[in-house]
Amino acid sequence: MSLFRTELRRLTKRRFTRWMTVGGLLVLALIVVGLFISNQKIGPEQWAEAERSADRQHQEQVQWAQQERAACERAKAAGETVDYYPADCADITPPLREDIRAEWFLPSTFVFRDNFEEMLVPLAGILAMIGFVVGASFVGAEWSTGGMMNLLLWRPKRLTVLLTKLGALLTGLLALALPATAAWFGSLWLVANWRGVTTGMTSGTWQSFLITGGRGIILVLVAATLGFALASLGRHTAMALGGAVAVMVVGQVGLAILLEMAQVRFAEAWLLPTYAYAWMTKKVTLQDWRSCNATYTGECEPATLDLTWQHSSALFTVGVVALLGAALWTMRRRDIA
């Protein structure tokens, strides 16, 4: 019997894998339902209601200006000195009707071209969480239950066994991520078709969306590999999950507070979620409002730092090589007990 097929079957038969997958897909389905409920298709009725809302807002502003002007005139007549009133009460005027735009009062609508790419971020995040936890439990359970020792009696090549398990894990996750991403494309296209706008799509836009979706799938595989490597190093699922909690909750939150107290420039550049977001969005621009770059117009612009997907890819590569390499080294060197 093929070791790869055996491991792939073991992965798909595990109840934990199934429940994690169902839970993650349920969350994604709820997001789609929420988008469908919270958005509307903009038509003549919505525009008419927005115009009425703009008229009401303008009337309220007119009434407010009249009341404030009258109060200002009474204060001036009584000889009171009120700092928040202008020197001339006639300067208190309402905005013009054309300054209050009807589109401000339109309901939310899902514009596929503008909104879809950012919606790939939660998809990748949820699938990456599934990949990390499933990857950690897949090998961690083998160590904690003694299944790894029994497996090595049948197939004594340690590194082959570990890498085959990893290959089965990544194959299974790829089989999940690809149709999930395709379903995400289709679901949000239907949301935009029924509750938004699907116009303006070009071949370049579709290509950009597909590339971003591909980066999301790579992020899932990276997260699964890291979870697998951490659990293999600690020989227990808790090693990976505990390490993740320590890094993300204690390390990242504590580090963020420490950096803020120390007033470190571009503190977000030291936080892992920033690189995950930069990987998905291609670039994140950090700003330091404590510095000032003067412009020709005399304005003060904050200093900026761009983090791109290339920075993220370098960080992910180092992390995967270091942790997976350590897991393989310990598998080869340590006793199986």
Briefly, what is this?
This protein is mainly alpha-helical and 337 residues long. It has two domains: 3-41 and 109-333, no CATH class; 46-105.
Description of the structure:
- One of its GO terms (molecular function) is ABC-type transporter activity.
- It comes from Micromonospora endophytica.
- This is ABC transporter permease.
- This protein has helices spanning 3-13, 15-38, 44-77, 112-145, 147-154, 158-195, 203-234, 237-261, 272-281, 309-333, and strands spanning 110-111, 196-197, 283-294, 300-308.
- The chain has 337 residues and is mainly α.
- It has 2 domains: 3-41 and 109-333, no CATH class; 46-105.
- Strand 3 (283-294) and strand 4 form a beta hairpin.
- Helix 4 (112-145) packs parallel to helix 7 and helix 9 (272-281) crosses helix 10.
- The radius of gyration is 28 Å and the shape is elongated.
- The mean pLDDT is 83.
